[in-house]
Amino acid sequence: MKFPPPVVPLTVSAVCFVLLRTPASHDLFSRTTHLVLSVLCAIGIVYHIILLLSTGQRHPTKEMTSGEGAPDPTAVRSLFDRIAPRYDITNRVMSFWFDLQWRKKLIAKVVRNPPNGRVVDLATGSGDVAFALARALPASSEIIGMDFCQGMLDQAIIKQRQMQTACPALGRIHFQQGDGMALPLADSSVDALTVSFGLRNMASRSKALAEMHRVIRPGGHLYVLEFSQPWRWFRPMYLVYLRFVLPLVAGLLTGDKKAYQYLNHSIECFPNRAALAAEIRQAGFTRVEPQALFFGVVALHHAVN
User: Fold this and answer.
1) What pTM did the predictor assign?
2) Buried b / exposed e across 151-160, counting CB within 10 Å, b at 16+?
3) Which of 22, 222, 224, 304 has the fewest C-beta atoms lying within 10 Å of its C-beta?
4) pLDDT digits over 264-295, tens only?
């Protein structure tokens, strides 16, 4: 995705600066015009710096990837085991609490196509989507929260015990370990499957999507909530946030800056909405509908098997 060359905003700033420094500028321009030129000059300089900082593409560190450059399962599992106790609060802070709204939109999609049987929340993490599904779906639905990281599942089970008294419906969620590359589920045994912010951490997206296609019944639904590539004008600012702000603040919250350096790299390298939709179709799904959220930073894909 191309941006304006860094020289463009710098040129705008230079022109504004020259106009402001012209000896006759006070006679030529009103006070309001002076203010506008000053603001444009400052904006041009700031945007020039942002463009320089967002130039190029970052890639996950070698210790977090396999020989083929894909996420290494052992390293990813270790990463999430380390950050699990502070995972929820870090997500809230780093997304400015928008992650709650994104998950609500996912649940609303699921409710519009109410599943009749088993619902699986893959890469369930600390269980937020599974809990929301249990609250929103009828008691007849069987809900499984599945993750390959036991540390994250432990956090989900702790939360389940704490909230179950106030909301007994949460007690019907069954949390279990499961690898997205080889799901411990029979063919066509799932009515709906959700995966939130977990697909990009799987060693092979094509294999994971093929497994989802295998376990979802014909006519069943897949919902993928994942980071994507933002709209062009917003991308430079977003990349600066990902590369510099997020690892620093998340490192302070979790004590593990390196973990969030990997996570922001994995976000930056992830395909855009159209490319991911094509991958989902290639796995055998039909009627793939991508929806951009928050300037394209996040995408919600809904597909039918």
Assistant:
1) 0.81
2) bbbebbeebb
3) 22
4) 888 888 999 999 999 999 999 989 999 999 99
